[in-house]
Amino acid sequence: MLPILSANDLIKPNPGLMFWTLITFVIVLLVLKRYAFGPIQAALDARRDQIQSDVDSAENARKEAQDALAEYRQALAESRKEAGRIVDEARRVAEDQRKRDIAQIEEEKTRQLQRAKEEIQAETRRSLQAIRDQLAELTLLTTEKVVRKQLDEAEQRRLIEEALADVDFQQFVGAEGATAAEDGE
Q1: Average pLDDT across the chain, whole number
Q2: pTM score of the predicted model
């Protein structure tokens, strides 16, 4: 049975109790150090290493994200510059094409105007020649009726030339030229 302790007995130093308490403490300390502190410390070290690794990974990921963002912004700026250059080039090409088209239209207009003038002049010459021929024929017929005889070819020519000399064909050409000039304007 256990002796009953008084309140004084608890305060008094007991060397036997102190010895066994110390021995028990050392044994518990050695057991805890071998079986508990080592694995706990290893788990804490592993957790610390894992946390440090995660922090480093997060920092690397942040740096990579910033680098990617910078590259994206640079690529976007270059794309905008390229798009602007392409638009400017397209405008320049369109303007050049428009100028070429206008020049071609002007050339075609000039060619058609020149061709129309040439056709008008040719038609005027044909008309004047037809008028001369009809006038010569009428003159010949009139002369034959007046003279009542048949003229030889030399006499016909002389009379035709005299009759045509009196007619001013330049007024027809001048009137036609003025009309063509008004049409061209």
Answers
A1: 83
A2: 0.39
